[in-house]
């Protein structure tokens, strides 16, 4: 740490208390323009990490900037607090999830407040509290009313030893994460939400989001997966066996069919098989595999012959039917027609299992030969051996064969979506109870709205075996709201994505107790103007939030079509790993300055730069850094080290560099006498004239040019480009410039003196969104009143910000060869590069060795060649 450091801890705590006491960041709806800034709310794991700090620092800059620009800013915070980690803590540590969650929230709240973010804590929500999840239940009931919620049977991961359902992330290589026992697939009756009813709108409305990253929109587009094709009825055992294809032009090239192990026909096939064992083994093994991996192009294609065939309706051919690991029920009908000659995945499978390859699209040269093919032909060509479309370009053949299929009654045109309905049932305790009961006489009965919330009981024993709600008689036993007969409650709880699908609307009126949120408040604040979060949420969270917003619009609660106007997906925070051969991965504090392991004394290998993770221990505790350098230093480093959308590499030297700059800033203002009332008045009059007066020269012109161009640069970098790092860089350059002006010269010229004081004031205003504590301290120290966040963002005179252009002479070996124009403050290295790149100069340097380049600032550049 630098010597003579400024008292950051005292300063930061003092101003945090003053802001809290004055309720500075409290928001209220009104008539003036609004700005709703939101970072994705955190899961209360117990401690924030540097990724959180980066996310919140970016949002805080924007929230403070927009407030200073005169907008009414809403910047709330809350806790996404249901989920599996709390149940795991209950099992491992014997702590009830509610207690664990509450304690974690308090600790993380302390950490976040210590960083000085401008959150409106009066709007804080926590999704594990009944006053929040009551409205999850209310929305579910509204969906049930609209036939958008329903129940059907579906497969889940199940550990027989633990007697519990497992999430996908709890299955590791087909084994239970906790006991290591083999996981099996089990079919249960579960609740779904009909998100597919909104497929077209979810897809089409992506065009209404010009301020979203194209990458994210493409990911959503692919996930929804709308495709136009044909549903063709092949024949199995004399019954229709439908498949969906976008390539009907290849249908005469089908040499086998494949179905997913989860396909409903499989149960019958296994039951009727002479030797079902190979089928059963394959089904059980495949169901344990990751579905995303199964669908990936580089995953090994595996299958097993069912002993059955399927009939192609177009040529009457019977082809073998295989179970295949690359076919998923999520795609199409869960069955595919396989054309090895023209699909690489099918080709690899056919070669592995000795299945025929039949060319039905010939290339331009006519050179395709099935026996000689080493890969599938997926290009265009002419159809061959393809019935009514033989001899046609296959692109035209698609339409003709589609019409032919419809005419013959073999199938019909259809639009297919990759998106499936949302399975929300979770056979776990720590989540929102699903508000229905089961009555022998009445069936499934919704809980009346006036009886909400259905409260999650806390007097449960969580063992990791079975959902404890099933054993809780007080919760389980109830009466039917319809007939009054004994009934039992639903014990499944909701997917925690429900909690985060509408929380941004709850922030608009978080204390509303008769509606999820007040329509008038949502009408003012919604939609979110800037949403900030990780790319890992690009699909599910954002898709579900968009779906909920559209549903809530349709029932009249909100008027917006989309929840988030602008989206920023910030990059990851990375750091090198530290590895000891004996003790494995090490935390930074477990390594000595000479790169030895503090545990065993052995050498430590510095690994590659990777995303910070607890498993590899390349993490930094924000509390430690704040304690050592202060919150402002942490914020400045994180915002300065990388543009928001790119990965940020953690660097101790970078943190220390930010700290040195803030110390230098503090010293600059320590030497500045407090402004008198007379000086403040003179300065205000001077500022008013600046916006209209252009006739400044000498030192005053230099100072005002630096200040004006910095205001322009910082404003544009935040508002237009979101380049927070270059905004900070521009302010640093301005501080350096202010340091460089000789005090005696400044004091001799009253206009220059006022310009210099205006520069000192402006530095604090421009820096305050980035480092709010030190700037607030210095703002008051030099004699200003009020909080910086309430100061108007400075305007500038474009004429004063205009760079002065100078003309330089360029010589080669002392002879004039060119003249260049450049801004007066262009540095010598740039002038040198401009001179060497000039075409007129190149005539005299090409083929020669440049020995040196002499730059006489503001006058000439002399290139010496030999």
Structural class: alpha+beta
Radius of gyration: 34 Å
Average predicted local confidence, pLDDT: 92
User: What percentage of residues falls in helices of 4 or more residues?
Assistant: 25-40%
How far from one another are the termini?
49 Å
Percentage beta strand: 15-25%
Shape: globular
Show unreliable segments.
none
Number of strands: 35
Spatial strand sequence of the major β-sheet: 2-1-26-27
Largest sheet: 4 strands, parallel
**Can you count the helices?**
28
Write the layout of secondary structure elements.
Layout lengths: L7 H14 L12 E6 L10 H19 L3 E3 L3 E2 L4 H10 L3 H18 L10 E2 L3 H16 L3 E11 L4 E3 L4 E2 L2 E2 L7 E10 L5 H6 L9 H11 L2 E10 L2 E7 L10 E4 L4 H9 L4 H11 L3 H5 L7 E9 L6 E7 L10 E4 L5 H10 L7 E2 L19 E2 L10 H15 L2 E6 L5 E2 L1 E2 L9 E4 L3 E4 L26 H4 E3 L6 E4 L3 E2 L8 H4 L12 H7 L4 E5 L5 H15 L12 E4 L2 E8 L3 E2 L18 E8 L10 H8 L1 H10 L7 E2 L2 H19 L6 H14 L7 H24 L2 H17 L2 H6 L1 H18 L4 H10 L16 H4 L3 E8 L2 E9 L4 H10 L1 H7 L4 E7 L3 E6 L1
Parallel strand pairs: 1-2, 1-26, 3-4, 12-14, 26-27, 28-31, 32-35
Antiparallel strand pairs: 5-6, 5-9, 7-8, 9-19, 10-11, 10-18, 12-15, 13-14, 16-17, 20-25, 21-22, 21-24, 23-24, 28-29, 28-30, 32-33, 34-35
Helix pairs in contact: 1-25, 2-18, 3-4, 17-18, 18-19, 20-24, 21-22, 21-24, 22-24, 24-25
């Amino acid at each position: 740490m630098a010597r003579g450091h400024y008292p950051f801890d005292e300063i930061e705590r003092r101003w945090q208390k003053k802001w809290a006491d004055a309720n500075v960041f409290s928001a209220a709806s009104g008539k003036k323009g609004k700005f709703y800034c939101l970072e994705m709310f955190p899961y209360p794991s117990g401690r924030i990490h540097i990724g959180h700090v980066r996310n919140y620092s970016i949002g805080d800059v924007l929230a403070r900037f927009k407030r200073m620009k005169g907008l009414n800013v809403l910047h709330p915070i809350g806790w996404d607090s249901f989920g599996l980690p709390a149940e795991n803590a209950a099992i491992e540590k014997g702590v009830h999830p509610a207690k664990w969650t509450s304690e974690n929230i308090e600790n993380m709240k302390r950490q976040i407040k210590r960083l000085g973010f401008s959150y409106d804590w009066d709007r804080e929500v926590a999704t594990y509290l009944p006053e929040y999840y009551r409205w999850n239940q209310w929305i579910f009931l509204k969906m049930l009313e609209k036939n958008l919620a329903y129940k059907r049977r579906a497969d889940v991961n199940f550990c027989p030893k633990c007697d519990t359902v497992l999430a996908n992330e709890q299955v590791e290589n087909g084994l239970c994460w906790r006991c290591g026992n083999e996981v099996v697939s089990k079919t249960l009756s579960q609740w779904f939400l009909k998100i597919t009813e909104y497929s077209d709108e979810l897809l089409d409305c992506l065009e209404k989001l010009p301020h979203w990253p194209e990458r994210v929109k493409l990911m959503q587009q692919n996930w929804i997966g709308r495709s136009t094709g044909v549903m063709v009825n092949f024949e199995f055992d004399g019954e229709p066996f439908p498949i969906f294809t976008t390539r009907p032009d290849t249908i005469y090239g089908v040499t086998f069919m494949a179905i997913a192990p989860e396909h409903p026909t499989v149960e019958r096939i296994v039951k009727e098989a002479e030797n079902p064992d190979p089928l059963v083994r394959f089904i059980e093994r495949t169901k344990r595999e990751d579905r995303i991996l199964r669908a990936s192009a580089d995953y090994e294609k595996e299958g097993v012959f069912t002993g059955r065939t399927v009939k192609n309706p177009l040529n009457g051919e019977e082809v073998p039917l295989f179970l295949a690991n690359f076919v998923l029920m999520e795609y199409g009908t869960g069955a595919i027609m396989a054309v090895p000659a023209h699909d690489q995945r099918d080709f690899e499978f056919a070669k592995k299992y000795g299945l025929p390859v039949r060319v039905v699209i010939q290339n331009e040269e006519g050179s395709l030969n099935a026996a000689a093919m080493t890969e599938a032909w997926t290009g265009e060509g002419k159809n061959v051996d393809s019935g009514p479309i033989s001899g046609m370009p296959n692109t035209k053949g698609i339409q003709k064969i589609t019409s032919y299929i419809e005419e013959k009654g073999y199938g019909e045109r259809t639009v297919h979506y990759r998106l499936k309905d949302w399975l929300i049932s979770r056979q776990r305790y720590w989540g929102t109870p699903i508000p229905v009961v089961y009555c022998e006489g009445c069936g499934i009965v919704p809980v009346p709205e006036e009886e909400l919330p259905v409260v999650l009981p806390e007097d449960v024993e969580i063992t990791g075996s079975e959902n404890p709600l099933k054993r809780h008689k007080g919760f389980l036993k109830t009466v039917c709201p319809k007939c009054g007969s004994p009934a039992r409650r639903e014990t499944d709880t909701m997917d925690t994505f429900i909690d985060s699908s509408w929380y941004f609307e709850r922030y608009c009126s978080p204390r509303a107790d008769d509606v999820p949120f007040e329509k008038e408040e949502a009408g003012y604040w919604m939609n979110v103007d800037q949403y900030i979060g990780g790319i890992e949420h690009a699909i599910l969270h954002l898709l579900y939030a968009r779906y909920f917003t559209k549903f809530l619009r349709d029932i009249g609660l909100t008027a917006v079509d989309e929840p988030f106007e602008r989206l920023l997906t910030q990059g990851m925070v990375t750091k090198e790993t530290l590895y000891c051969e004996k003790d494995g991965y090490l935390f930074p504090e477990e390594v000595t300055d000479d790169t030895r392991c503090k545990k065993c004394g052995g050498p430590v290998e510095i690994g590659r730069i990777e995303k910070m993770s607890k498993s590899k221990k390349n993490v930094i505790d924000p509390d430690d850094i704040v304690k050592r350098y202060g919150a402002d230093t942490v914020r400045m480093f994180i915002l300065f080290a990388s543009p928001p959308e790119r990965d940020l590499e953690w660097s101790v030297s970078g943190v220390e560099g930010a700290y040195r700059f803030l110390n230098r800033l503090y010293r600059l203002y320590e030497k500045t006498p407090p402004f008198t009332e007379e000086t403040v008045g003179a300065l205000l009059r001077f500022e008013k004239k600046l916006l209209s007066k252009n006739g400044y020269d000498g030192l005053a012109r230099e100072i005002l040019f630096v200040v004006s161009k910095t205001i322009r640069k910082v404003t544009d970098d935040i508002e237009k480009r979101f380049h927070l790092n270059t905004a900070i860089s521009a302010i640093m350059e301005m501080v350096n410039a202010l340091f460089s002006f000789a005090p005696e010269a400044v004091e001799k010229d009253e206009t220059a003196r006022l310009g210099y004081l205006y520069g000192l004031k402006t530095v604090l205003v421009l820096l305050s969104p980035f480092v709010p504590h030190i700037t607030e301290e210095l703002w008051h120290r030099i004699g200003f009143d009020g909080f910086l966040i309430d100061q108007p963002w400075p305007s500038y005179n474009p004429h004063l910000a205009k760079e002065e252009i100078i003309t330089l002479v360029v010589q080669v070996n002392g002879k004039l060869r060119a003249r260049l124009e450049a801004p007066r403050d262009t540095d010598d290295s740039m002038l040198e590069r401009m001179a060497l790149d000039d075409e007129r100069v190149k005539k005299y340097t090409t083929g020669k060795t440049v020995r040196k380049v002499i730059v006489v600032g503001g006058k000439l550049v002399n290139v010496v060649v030999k």
